[in-house]
Specification:
Strand content: under 5%
Radius of gyration: 21 Å
Number of strands: 0
Number of helices: 8
Shape: globular
Largest sheet: none
């Protein structure tokens, strides 16, 4: 059993920092997009329009049925070939992660909306407050409070899923570890180092999630 040679990684620390920064950037953007998409899907699902509900259910079934990695390849390579519009590797990855996450987040968001007392919406209607104002200033803030803990779990999932983007050439943390193995002739130390980074970040996010959940329970 040979000793671990982490000293081989020292000349590549700048690359690890760049990759880590890109990973955090992709995580944030993908999550924000997913949240917006999920709200839209939840609103569509709660309508009484059968056509919209059917389109929603079909879309959700398609996204849930196709593996994320395959979705990633379709967005990065098939979409530009069909439309003639190249999104670029990073944006293609962010959109893929966002679209995939949104179909799972939408159920949590819909549950949050359902948990808001209907009497408040009826009171807003009685006061002649328009539906858009009611949604953004009355319904959404209260729903957001109940779904915040589950959204933190989605942030963690998005963070870990960014490793898939290495498959289409995005210079994120996992791709850096692969490049460093080639450049330094290290066997697995770069992978182990990156695994430790993932572990530390996930532990921090988990702790934040528990703190937020505790404060929400205290507030209730």
């Amino acid at each position: 059993m040979r000793n671990l040679q982490f000293d081989k990684l020292l000349p590549f620390m700048d690359q690890f920092l760049i990759g880590f920064g890109r990973t955090i950037e992709v995580t944030i953007i993908a999550f924000l997009l997913a949240f917006v998409f999920a709200i839209f899907l939840a609103v569509v699902r709660m309508t009484n329009n059968r056509v919209l509900v059917l389109i929603h259910d079909t879309w959700v079934l398609i996204i849930r049925s196709v593996p994320v990695l395959l979705q990633l390849f379709l967005m990065a390579y098939a979409f530009p070939a069909i439309t003639g519009f190249d999104l670029g590797e990073t944006l293609a990855g962010e959109l893929t992660l966002a679209i995939n996450a949104s179909v799972y987040m939408t159920e949590s968001i819909r549950g949050g909306f359902a948990g808001v007392d209907k009497g408040q919406r009826e009171a807003a209607l009685a006061l002649a407050i328009n539906p858009r104002t009611t949604f953004f200033y009355i319904t959404l803030p209260q729903a957001f409070k109940s779904i915040l803990p589950s959204m933190m779990n989605e942030v963690i999932l998005q963070f870990k899923s960014t490793a898939l983007l290495a498959q289409i050439g995005v210079f994120e943390l996992f791709m850096v570890s692969h490049n460093v193995i080639v450049a330094s002739y290290a066997s697995f130390e770069p992978f182990l180092f990156v695994a430790i980074i993932y572990y530390v970040v996930v532990m921090i996010l988990t702790k934040i999630s528990k703190v937020i959940e505790g404060r929400m329970m205290l507030s209730d």
